[in-house]
Design a protein that fits this description.
The chain has 306 residues and is an alpha+beta fold. It is 23% helix and 48% strand. The protein has one domain (2-297).
Length: 306
């Protein structure tokens, strides 16, 4: 069962905030463009564990209870069934397991600054980066701030994105509809990157390492009339409180990427690892769940400069 589920999940496009770190410490030279396309994974340890436990609880059973094809839920047993299903729905929306496709473009609009836009499986993000270390103007002038030899670069950026979540996995899509689950998210990503140029001005590519911090502002809730269809008595009599809440999700960790090519076209491989504290979530007054864990984001792609 677990193998079948995992095989299906890895084929899904995970709709999440773009957090793959694909840039080097050198910003796009003034007046030039960079375009690229990548495939990236999103593999959170907390989500994979929650998926298996929750699916055992039986989405089909919940559907039958809502439609009257089986007895309505009641008492402690019914509340625990609901809690198991909701655990999975919440953690999956916070950090979905799957693959995504990333298309990006950058433009160097000033000596130390560039702008970028990314489209990642339905999520659009915009960012700005500032280069504080290394030569500028295609290596013709030293950096006004810091310099450490002709091959070292450093930059810091800020990226913003937002999304409305819809579960891409059919069985959980049914659950989202059954419970009237709504989820929105806004993310701010701050990467700090250092790179070593392979050849002058990254002629043959670069090796990049750094750290990144991501702040996610999430809002989630359920529709009372949908949840009430599952239970024999009213939600008040069953002791169920339907949550509507806002949370902050903090994530941070290291990344490494390698860019290899020549002059105009390059291949790039990247791995970002985040430790994420998803926070505590009220599960309908039945229990409080706290989620945390590691997320691995591998990425592979191509990019061109002109």
């Amino acid at each position: 069962m677990r193998l079948t589920l995992f095989s299906a999940l890895i084929l899904l496009a995970a709709c999440t905030a773009p957090r793959a770190n694909l840039e080097t410490g050198r910003v796009t030279p003034r007046g030039r463009f960079i375009v690229g396309a990548d495939v990236r994974g999103n593999v959170p340890t907390e989500t994979t564990g929650a998926m298996y436990d929750s699916l055992k609880a039986g989405v089909n059973e919940a559907r039958d209870a809502a439609t009257g094809e089986s007895p309505k839920w009641t008492g402690e047993e019914g509340r625990q069934k609901l809690a198991k299903l909701v655990d999975t729905l919440v953690i999956y929306s916070l950090d979905p397991l799957g693959w995504g496709f990333d298309f990006r473009a950058r433009y160097g609009f000033y000596d130390h600054l560039d702008l970028g836009v990314r489209y990642d499986s339905g999520v659009v993000a915009g960012d700005v980066r500032f280069q504080f270390l290394g030569a500028i103007d295609r290596g013709r002038r030293p950096n006004f701030f810091f310099n450490h030899g002709p091959r070292w670069y450093g930059s810091v950026g800020v990226q913003y994105s937002q999304q409305d979540f819809k579960v891409p996995l059919p069985v959980l899509e049914d659950l989202q509809e059954l419970l009237g689950y709504e989820f929105t998210r806004k993310d701010v990503l701050v990467p700090l990157a250092f790179s070593y140029s392979l050849g002058p001005d990254e002629l043959f590519g670069a090796i990049t390492f750094g750290v990144a911090y991501n702040l996610g502002l999430v809002k989630y809730g359920f529709k009372e009339e949908k949840v009430a269809q599952l239970f024999q008595e009213s939600l008040e009599q069953e002791g169920i409180v339907v949550p509507q809440d806002e949370k902050s999700v903090h994530a941070f960790g290291p990344f490494l990427n390698v860019k290899v090519g020549y002059k105009w076209i390059y291949a790039i491989a990247s791995l970002s690892i985040y430790y994420q504290d998803y926070g505590s979530y009220d599960i309908f007054g039945v229990k409080t769940s706290r989620f945390s864990g590691l997320t691995f984001i591998p990425s592979f792609g191509v990019m061109g400069t002109f």
